[in-house]
Amino acid sequence: MGEIIFEYPIAFTIPFIFLICLKYCKPKFLALFFPNVNIFKKISGKKSTFLNILKFLVILFLSISLASPIKKDEVVTQENKGYEISLILDVSGSMAQYNKFKIVKNIVSDFIKKRKHDKLGLTIFADFAYVAVPLTYDKKSLERLLDKIDVGIAGTHRTALYEALFMSTKLFKNSKAKNKIAILLTDGIDNTGTIPLDVAINTARKYGIKVYTIGVGGRGDYNPYVLKKIAEKTGGKFFEADSSAKLKRVYDEIDKLEKSEIKTNKFIKKSYYFQYPLFLGLIFLALLIILNNLNMKAREA
Fold first, then answer.
1. Which ranges in the chain belong to alpha helices (H)?
2. Gap between the Cα atoms of 93 and 95, Å rounded
3. pLDDT tens string 153-190
4. Could you read off the pLDDT of 71-125 as tens digits, one per residue?
5. What is the pLDDT of residue 224?
6. Are 197 and 162 in contact (CB under 8 A)?
7. Which residue, of 21, 45, 219, 242, is most buried by count of CB atoms within 10 Å of its CB?
8. Residue 40 confidence (pLDDT)
């Protein structure tokens, strides 16, 4: 929400000018002397003070109205050309070694935060693969669920890598997005045989999904030729990371390679509030006029 500001703050000089004139610009009238003049002065002084207060309130609220109080709200409209990204993570038993999965979760969580305008989904695999989170804009829910996932949640002994890629592609079945990305991270070799590699690759190509593959750990842990084939056949890129620093650089590079095109338009919405001080000023002005008329009638009587 915007704060109340004034378009023409110079108008606030008017009440100060009034106060200066009230003190130094007094009119000179013909002096008349009456008996009991002290009592008259007290009564007259009280009336005069009250009328001066009313005059000041009239000028103050009319000056506030003239200063034009407004509230500015910045309205941002975005024409997002965001991506749809499927994160595919290996949660097999080997990912527990050297605290690999915890490191991966921290880096992936940071990657999620950067993709503000994209839809992201999460697929995990070990003995079997399943979609943990379908494509969503709700990044907080995705991060909360990722935080709760740990090694062993889908078994510990096998690596259903091709099945995970195949299942992940199904997320894009009804997608109309121009940019569809999958990021597959593993430290193992497929040993389930549930889905042939070519079937998984061809399904990804069918839906126009670009697959980035990441092998973590030593070269003997995963099959670099398979991961490279998946990436090349789908238009993606293959990465290797044997340290947390390298893995972070991999996700940073993917983030740069697949940066969403965001067009932002900013508008300033102005809400005007001059009518409220104007209303109060007119009320005090009406009261001042009524009291002046009563004083004139009292003098005439």
1. 13-24, 37-67, 100-114, 139-148, 161-169, 197-206, 224-234, 244-257, 275-300
2. 5
3. 988 889 999 999 999 998 998 888 888 999 999 999 99
4. 877 665 555 567 899 999 999 999 999 999 999 999 999 999 999 888 999 999 9
5. 95
6. yes
7. 242
8. 44
The pLDDT value given to residue 266 = 62
Count of other CB atoms within 10 angstroms of residue 186? 28
DSSP labels, 107-171? HHHHHHHH-TTSEEEEEEESSSEEEEEEEES-HHHHHHHHHH--TBBTBSS---HHHHHHHHHGG
Determine contact, residues 182/165, Cβ cutoff 8 Å: yes
Residue where the block lists tokens 């009328």 = 51
Of residues 269 and 245, the one with the higher pLDDT is 245
The SS3 assignment for 3 reads: coil
How is residue 77 written in tokens?
A: 């409209």
Contact partners, residue 301, CB within 8 Å, separation at least 6: none
**Residue type for position 51:** L
The domains of the chain, with CATH numbers, are 4-73+269-300 (no CATH), 83-259 (3.40.50.410)
The two structure tokens encoding residue 204: 């990804």
The answer, yes or no, to whether residue 39 has pLDDT greater than 60, is no
